[in-house]
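How a chain folds remains the central question behind the approach discussed here. The record that follows shows the chain in one-letter code together with its fold in token form:
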Amino acid sequence: MNRRSVLAGLGITGLASLSGCLGLVGLDEHESSPAGVTAAAREETGYEQTAIEPLTVDREVGPTNEAVTVTNYMTSHEKAVDMGPLGRKRGAVFNVLTTPQVSILGRELNPIEEMSTQQLVKLVRQNYDGIGNIEHQADTDVTVLDQSTTQSRFTADAEFSGQDVSVNIHITEAVEANEDLLVTIGVYPEYVQRLEESNIMSLTAAVTTDVDENPSSTGSDSAASDTENITDSTSIDELDNATSVNGTANVSIKAESGDDLLG
């Protein structure tokens, strides 16, 4: 999948109305801090933290074409699962996105603060080529950083190594993370829902602003052992009744072959 700059541009939209004075009030540059998941939760669920990626965009806004720079961060976690005919691939992902709060006179200008999960999943769709047939399935209340928020599950069609894959997307509405706003995005193939849905819930509850900058490989798949016996691996053979799923949203789900589910 080809990724566009939609997610990188979060935080800029609300600044356009203030163009011409952003530099004077210190609003021309914004950067969030990365967040992640506790090491204990990664170990328990078999997910490996694979990247902390800055998503930076420079744009000119408003009639005065004032330059604005916003840097968001995406922390990616991956897990190898059985992808059927494709074999064992890193097809399950959990991403933590942070974007800076941008406020003036008590007014929050970053639109992500008020976005519903339906609006957020549309952003994800716009950010990647090859995602379609997104349908809302269910909502649940979750706690992220001691704040109650909504997590929604969507089904969707995605593409992996040139083949169509039905996936589930779990996405949360934004919560505050110190001076930033934070959203979580979990994606996995539909047929491993019985195992991975609970893992996504555990990872969501374990989100932390104390991100590991250089974590050791503690996930279910730390490169060389992709096809070996891996603890907490997900296999189709372990599922009695493979259900049909959909749902997609991801940022950088890289497989061993270099393919991305949604990246």
